[in-house]
Amino acid sequence: MIGQICARIVAFFLRKRVVFWGIFLLVLTFLGVGVSKLNINEDLYAIFPQGEEFRKFNEIVQKNKLNKQVVFSIKNQGDEELTFEQLEGLKVDLEKRFSQELSEIEIVKSVDQAALIGFLQKSSIRTLEPKDYARLEEKLKGDSIRKSLKRSADLLHGPNAFFLSSVVAQDPLGLFYEQLKQLNPSSDSGNYSLKDGVVYSRDEQYAFFFGTIEINQKDTKKLAEFSKRIEAFKQEKAKQKGLKFDYFGTFQVAVENAKQVKFDAFLTSMISISGILLLLILYYRSVLAPIYFLFPAFFGILSGAGLVGYLHPEISAISLATSSVLLGIVLDYSFHFFTHLKHLGDVVKTVKEIGSPMLLGSFTTIAALASLLFTNSVVLQNFGLIALCTLSGSVVFTLLFLPVLVKQFRMEIRDKSKPTKGFKLSKPLVRASFLLITLLSLVFLYKSSGMTFDSDMNHLSFHTKELKEKEKFYTGINPNTDKKLFVFSSAPTMEAARIQNDAVYQSLVADKEQYGISELVSLSPYLPSKNSLEKSEANWLNFWKKHSNIEREVQQISPEYGLNSAGFKPFFQWIEKPSVDKQEGIDLLNQLGLNKFVSEEKDLYSYATSITVKKDKQDLVKEELSKIEGVFILDISEMAKSMLNVVKKDFDYLFLFSSLLVFVSLLVIYGRIELTLFAAFPMVLGWIWILGISSMFDIPFNFINIIVATFIFGLGDDFSIFTTDGLIQQSRTGVNSIKSSQSGIILSGISTIIGTGVLIFAKHPAIHSIGAISVVGIGSIMLITLFLQPRIFNFFVLNRAKAGRGPITFFYFIYSILLFLYFFVGSFVLNIFLIFILIPLPIKRIKKQNVLNYLISRLAKSTIYAGFHVKKIGVDAHKLDYKNPSIIIANHSSFLDILVVLMLHPKTVIMVKKWVYNSPVFSPFIRYGGYLFAEEGADGNLDDVRKRIDEGYSIVIFPEGTRSSDGMIKRFHKGAFYLSMEMGIPIQPLLILGTHEVNPKNDFIINQGQILYKPLDRITALENETYGQFCKRATQLMRDGMQNFRKEHATSTFFTRKVMENYLLKGPILEWYIRVKWRMERTNFDFYNQLIGTKKSVVDVGCGYGYLSLFLNYYDPSRRIVGMDYDEDKIAVANNCIKLSDKINFENADIREWEIPAADVYFFNDVIHYLKPEEQIQLLIDVNRKMDNEGIIVIRDGIIELQDRLKNTKLTEILSTKWFKFNKTTNDLTFLSAKQIEQFAHQNGFSFELIEHSTKTSNVLMILKK
Q1: PANTHER family annotated for this entry (predicted)?
Q2: Are strands 954-957 and 908-912 parallel, antiparallel or unpaired?
Q3: Which of 746, 876, 879, 948 would bridge 953 by S-S if both were Cys, CB 3.0 to 4.6 A apart?
């Protein structure tokens, strides 16, 4: 239906070229304007979910000036004055050259060292714990004071006396030197040391200075330009003798990533396009072929970029680069179009054939990819939007625009390759392949649970070796062993935030070595909380109350070492009043550059602590800090991992949602669960293979290559749908069009592997990671759709059609397995009951046999009646007299015949064949139950039969010896009749009808239908009749009885399933059309069948899909039936239906030109009104000439005499021919005149009978008999 609509649009464009070019150029212009609106965003963080957690993370990344800091370095020449001059010169040059890009360039850290030391000394009392006060006690005992003052005197007479004088004045006893070391910022400066205001490396080989970059971290274009200019600046300075200049900033990571993404996208695109072009040229041996094939790709790219330009102008660079994987799907459309065009040779026919599967495949693919729009990641949203726009544009172009362009410019792709014979795998090889695939699938299913998801962002970011070395040198952090953490103490009030910050600091300082902390930068020493100050001051004053004579002791001892105690006044004041100047702490904070760690906003105060820990200790630190209420630990990589895991869960949900959407879409389009499962199964199995192979070869999924999952899912369903459609067409018409689809799939798959596999050559890890997954995925899907899928369809549909059976449907497949499983389990239970319960019972064997045979009969009956979809009908069942045992002979065409005869009465045993008698499932209970072994022959069984008869059992024998393959009664063996005559036992004929249709020979499916049985009158041998003659008489009796039985009960209802199975799994429209027509017409068909009677030749003119002709053939296979229709598609379907004999044939012809064959009966159902009036009468004249003197003409059509109902008839015909195109016509409709037909009948020796068929339309049945 969809293909027909597309074909009509293409036909319209071909007729109206001006309209086509107007629309086409308008579309191109519209898309071109959209492309100009695009703005590419190269922000790596775009892959994160845009939730509240990301908002906080992004705010830290974008606003934190530490992230914007640039570190510059020069080689220290050993001359401090020269080094300082070089630093000054560089500062001036940088400020001049990069005035807009750089700010706050500092070459000297102008920190008042004396003030800093003094403040830290005063602040150190806050770190004192009971153990520290105990240490102070020791320092104030005996000679400890004397030793401390001597050390202070030595310091004041040393080379650093000027600097240390203030330190000694504040603490002459050296009570707080240990605390001072902990508080000294230089001890926690990572890779740096401070000397005379200049920052040096620890070994003083390099001098550093700092600046702040003013460019927005998301503006990679400006960052790239800055990177280029500053690199040029570096090269320029490298020419100066004695100056080795370098720099490092986090902006370099963003720039390198953006640069590599662009380069990789260009490189992989060029390689993939070149590879695909080479493939097309070699395959089609035409230089122009690639141009034709790339038209949909070019339009798809234009459509994707253009529509995205209108819908979402800002697009992620990573999503744009990874969208190159869509090229495989877009080219898939080209492959299918041109391979089918080469096969059909006409663009309109090509569009009609590929329209439905292509639109269905593209819809499910787009649905799967478009589900990414509902994620919170910008990259995934962008990729989903690009896929939606690109694929939609490509499929519209391929179906509506490309055919017109092909016709307009006479694009032809001729197959210059020599025809090759296809190869066919031998059955053993096919079975071995299936076994191997099954085993591999089980292994992959098991391994799939071990699939890993790599959520480490570092693995998705591009770092050159040089950049990694720079990062390690400038930060002093080894990324392999160290971890940088930021701890934020936040609260609504300043005091609460500072209390938290103090708690964090105290916790970390107390166990610094245990936690493996190599760097600790905290604001706590400079911004202490009021609570901690008050508490520490109180403890301090209490301590010195116990040592009130300390001032006197120091004054007495000081002169001994040449010290003037008056210089220790700050120390004595500190003892009495240990206050800290808060403003001084803030000033020092600003001087040290630690103000970046402070965030004070309305109702929210936040203080940051920076720590560097060993990676193996980070969990311990986090666990300890998490105990402090209100503390937030910012671990950028962990946060990224957490957010990616959130997106992964979100993605899993959307993947499930899209899978269900695709499944429902397939179910709606195909209308059958069987075709839906068949089309979806390659995607499911392919996904298992992808996960299993990836797990086995340690190919982890990550946030970027998981996009390939949706791509493979989409391309996989495209492959599967085209394969399914090709197989449906083969099942429908018998034409093997699957080769065209498979050619397209092979070319598309190889081109996709080229297009995505080349991503392995990309250096950017995010893009590189796609390559391996895509190759594994597409390879798996190709193998499944090209090898496994057709053979499964053959097993369930095509091979059965060749054997004269209908396709296996889902319900009957499952239910048949359950029924057989029920029967076999019941048999097993019977054996258990027999062996462990019945046999040990101390009662007579005959009684035990009776119990066992009763249970066997109940098992058989419960199995038959468990098939609720099968109607059971017994006719004249009273003729079965089990009180007087007999030999029951029954026709045999199904396994179910055995269950039917067993369920009728417990006093029944069967003569069974070798496989049943020796079966491990049936053998125990049938042997104990007294069943007879057919292989022993009639003579060998004579005594056993007599014994069974004496015990009151009737013996069931199937005289045909084996099941009939066509349901007809075959030649009887004579054994049953020999036994009858030898023992004087009557024969009880039993007719079984319908079991062959429900479960034919060598089939395991229990189909819908009817099972009927009818016992005939008992017969005995006539006088002087041999048992051979007796056998022949019984055979003919049963054949005649079966013929009459069929006439009575084998109506259209009986054959409904057999007729309908010809149209199953051939498309929902066809199936439901036949279902509706069959329900409307089957009572008429019964009437037609009775009307035909014993006549043997029938012509069905306007037979359509052939369901009437098939019914007549099924009822009586000896009839010679010819069906004819003007619609070649319907005849193709009819000719591919199951026929019970070669006497039925379907022909495609125009009735006006057709040589009408001679026949006894002619049917004209709703066909004559398509002819002109003069052609209608001429047709009847021609028919009259061909038929014999007892022929019948049946005409069903609308008549003009019923004018009030004729308009309804016309409306249905208009809908059928003009709108839905169910019927084809070349003339205007001309309905019949009943009077004219009656006049013709009387003139040509026919009787005339008119029967009205409807109360709403003018359709009537006119029967003309000679």
Answers
A1: MEMBRANE PROTEIN MJ1562-RELATED, MEMBRANE PROTEIN YDFJ
A2: parallel
A3: 948
pLDDT tens sequence across 1009-1064? 999 999 999 999 998 899 899 999 999 999 999 999 998 999 999 999 999 999 99
Q: How far is CA 757 from the centre of its chain?
A: 20
In CATH, what class is 1056-1265? alpha beta
Instruction: Please tell me the distance from the alpha carbon of residue 1177 to that of residue 1164, in angstroms, as a whole number.
Output: 13
Q: Closest Cα partner for 648 from 424, 540, 640?
A: 640
Structure confidence at residue 283 as a pLDDT band (50, 70, 90): confident
Residue 875: which of 900, 853, 895 has the closest Cα? 900
The pLDDT tens digits for 831-845 are 999 999 999 999 999
How many CB atoms are closer than 10 A to CB 358?
A: 26
Using alpha carbons only, give the angle 1012, 1045, 912 rounded to the nearest 5 degrees.
55
> pLDDT tens digit string along 568-597?
888 888 788 877 766 766 776 666 666 667
Average pLDDT over residues 195-216: 79
Separation between Cα atoms, residue 364 and residue 347, nearest integer Å:
25
Element (H, E) at 624: helix 618-625
Q: Is 602 helix (H, G, I), strand (E, B) or coil?
A: coil
Q: Closest Cα partner for 504 from 481, 478, 479, 485?
A: 485
Identify the bridge partners of residue 75 per DSSP, sorted by sequence position. 206
Closest CA to 50 of 643, 677, 655: 643
Question: In the chain, which residues fall in CATH 3.40.1130?
Answer: 817-1049
- Residue with the larger pLDDT of the pair 642 and 280: 280
Whether 666 contacts 774, CB under 8 Å? no
pLDDT interval class at 332 (50, 70, 90): confident
Band (pLDDT 50/70/90 cuts) for residue 690 is confident
**Contact by Cβ (8 Å): 326, 395:** no
Summarised one tens digit per residue, pLDDT across range 872-905 is 999 999 999 999 999 999 999 999 999 999 999 9
102 backbone φψ class: left, alpha, beta (φ>0; ψ -120 to 50): beta
The owner of tokens 């019927």 is 1223
SS3 1113: helix
Fold classification of 817-1049 is Glycerol-3-phosphate (1)-acyltransferase (3.40.1130)
DSSP string, 494-511: HHHHHHHHHHHHHHHHHT
What DSSP character marks residue 788? I
Do residues 920 and 824 make contact, with C-beta atoms less than 8 angstroms apart?
no
Q: Where are the alpha helices (DSSP H) in 171-288?
A: 177-183, 220-238, 251-284
- Kindly report, residue by residue over 127-141, the tens digit of the pLDDT: 777 887 888 888 887
HSE on the CB side for 817, CA within 13 Å?
6
998-1031 in b/e form (b: 16+ CB < 10 A) is bbbeebebbbbbbbbbbbbebbebeeeeebeebb
Report d(CA 807, CA 1063) in Å as an integer. Answer: 9
Q: Where do the DSSP E strands lie in 435-530?
A: 453-454, 482-491, 517-521
CB 1207 within 8 A of CB 1200: no
If you write DSSP's letter for every residue of 1039-1076 in order, what string do you get?
A: HHHHHHHHHHH-STTTTHHHHHTTSTTS-HHHHHHHHH
Distance CA 734, CA 1136 (A): 6
Residue in this structure with the two tokens 């090759």, named with its chain if needed: 420
| CA–CA dist 662, 659 (Å, integer) | 5
What's the rounded Cα separation, in Å, for the pair 1051 and 873? 14
Domain with CATH 3.40.50.150 in the chain: 1056-1265
Q: Are 3 and 353 in contact (CB under 8 A)?
A: yes
Backbone angles phi, psi at 262, to 5 degrees: -65, -45
Q: Which residues share a beta bridge with 72?
A: 209, 247
**Predicted pLDDT at 475:** 66
Sign of the C-alpha dihedral computed for residues 1218, 1222, 1226 and 1229 taken in this order? negative
